[in-house]
Amino acid sequence: MTKQVQQLDRVIIRFAGDSGDGMQLTGDRFTAETAQFGNDLSTLPNFPAEIRAPAGTLPGVSSFQLHFADHDILTPGDAPNVLVAMNPAALKANLADLPRGADIIANIDEFTKRNLVKVGYAGNPIEDDSLAEWRLHAVPLTSLTVRALEGFDISKKDAERAKNMFALGLLSWLYSRPTEGTIAFLEAKFARKPEIAKANIAAFQAGWNYGETTESFSTSYEIKPATLRPGTYRNISGNQALAYGLIAASVQARLPLFLGSYPITPASDILHELSRHKHFGIRTFQAEDEIAGVAAALGAAFGGSLGVTTTSGPGVALKAETVGLAVTTELPLIVVDVQRAGPSTGMPTKTEQTDLLMAMFGRNGESPVPVFAPATPSDCFTMAVEAARIAVKYRTPVMLLSDGYLANGSEPWRIPEIDELPDISVRFTTAPNGDDGTMYLPYLRDPATLARPWAVPGTPGLEHRIGGIEKADGSGNISYNPNNHDRMVRLRQAKIDGIDVPPLEVDDPDGDARVLVLGWGSTYGPIAAAVRRVRKDGGKVAQAHLRHLNPLPANTCEVLRSYDKVLLPEINLGQLAMLLRARFLVDVITYNQVRGLPFKAAELAAVIQDVIDSD
């Protein structure tokens, strides 16, 4: 049977199943092969917070969405073209997102009466024509997998577990993905269990062969590689990129990296990744709690290391006092907040931008710190290096606001050349700096940066006090003098205000747009995709994106006042909007959704068009 091959410019696939069905692994492998093939891509893993929700229930559904194309893309896509549903719960949880005419590949073996009742289906949707508006492919994935593995010395349970590899093989055939990388991955992953490795490879190949031979699929699809800037690329998640950025910063600063951290979703992978790279002189310390983690990192900074702590919103709340200590001792410390849905425990595996005000003001006293936010998963690398540059240059703690969407999502990343990285090497003070040549003044400031000296403990003649009580200007002695306190408060604020950050860039192709869409952090992709849509339909709109939130770029006010209307979408209830209104008296238009999910490009395009039309 000769099958047609149809060319597509892009496709969005969502793998969905029970949290024990291996959907994240399946999605990761499909993504890896897609990246190897050379497509541009963006991913959105979505999984439950429970360690193991009851099997076959809606709370236990785990999914992985992948958008890949032959051109530059910006988001994981608004709605999937293909849904792989491993059970009724996966179908029910995701069907509302599926546009009419899209493909559904359903594992009919799991559509038993018991499983249907679990999720509230009165009848079987595979059989009752309720899915007539979609292209349904009913495939007995489980039984086909078990049959393909009959000759292997494994249990039936282990054979059934391999159904995700069968599904991966089928989708790999359907979209012309390479297979060699997955086979090598399975051989390495199960190197100590060769029979399991062979079984999973056989299931993967059986899925491919099923697509090739079955009459259920008469067409396969091909998406050509994207044209990307020359260089060496790899697929990378935000947490991986952030970890690699910290390693690069450590090398460029010529400082040992110390991470003091307590595991917390969705930041834990940074700890896991850094712990694999001890050969770079990296020390990772899994503390007993959040406070111990940041305190150890600050102690390491005092000792001359690049001190880092990683956490999410609940951990930032616990670390606040020690961050305040870093402010008053004026030591470089990087605090990474991978934001998640709150308050309290909230929805740990869902994303939000709701920690901005806490990062800005969530400490007692006047405690200013720089606040930065990466825009994309790969930008987490760049902003980690930037956070380190600012921390060591200005002797200050820095808050870096990633979020769950960036942390778990992935995209192609061009690996930078060494000479593209900034030199952020540090000069430690090694001799007395007082006028008489015998005294060390730990708070004698650099006139250009207002940064105080940094002396490694144990350096002869440079003994000095450190602690949380207010310091006397210059000498660093304990001081309760009112005028000195006022001066130190203003000096610390002036230091942050004077940090050198690049100007805010505006994308306004014709220069005649009257509406500006402003964003920060992970909203970059959806906003940029929405702006593209509006421009394609003839709308005139400008876009700007903030990665430096404190201090803001020097031209921020000028940019905001250059447009009749400024629209600011945020995944919170308007935190940056409040800051901009207070500082610049610009009445920005807000669009806010706090659903634990990133914006969709289509919804933002509609909002932008409404703002343009209301002009």
Automatic annotation (TrEMBL):
Occurrences of domain Pyruvate/ketoisovalerate oxidoreductase catalytic (ranges):
20-207
Recorded superkingdom: Bacteria
Does the keyword Protein biosynthesis feature in the UniProt annotation? no
Give the keywords, sorted.
Answer: Oxidoreductase
Q: Does the keyword GTP-binding apply?
A: no
Query: What Pfam families does the annotation carry?
Result: POR, POR_N
InterPro entries, per database record: 2-oxoacid/accept_OxRdtase_asu, Pyruvate:ferred/Flavod_OxRd, Pyrv/ketoisovalerate_OxRed_cat, Pyrv_Fd/Flavodoxin_OxRdtase_N, Pyrv_flavodox_OxRed_cen, THDP-binding, Transketo_C/PFOR_II
UniProt-listed SUPFAM superfamilies: Pyruvate-ferredoxin oxidoreductase, PFOR, domain III, Thiamin diphosphate-binding fold (THDP-binding), TK C-terminal domain-like
Which parts of the sequence belong to the Pyruvate flavodoxin/ferredoxin oxidoreductase pyrimidine binding domain? 258-473
Xref: PANTHER family: 2-OXOGLUTARATE OXIDOREDUCTASE SUBUNIT KORA (PTHR32154:SF20), PYRUVATE-FLAVODOXIN OXIDOREDUCTASE-RELATED (PTHR32154)
- Name by which UniProt lists this protein: 2-oxoacid:acceptor oxidoreductase subunit alpha
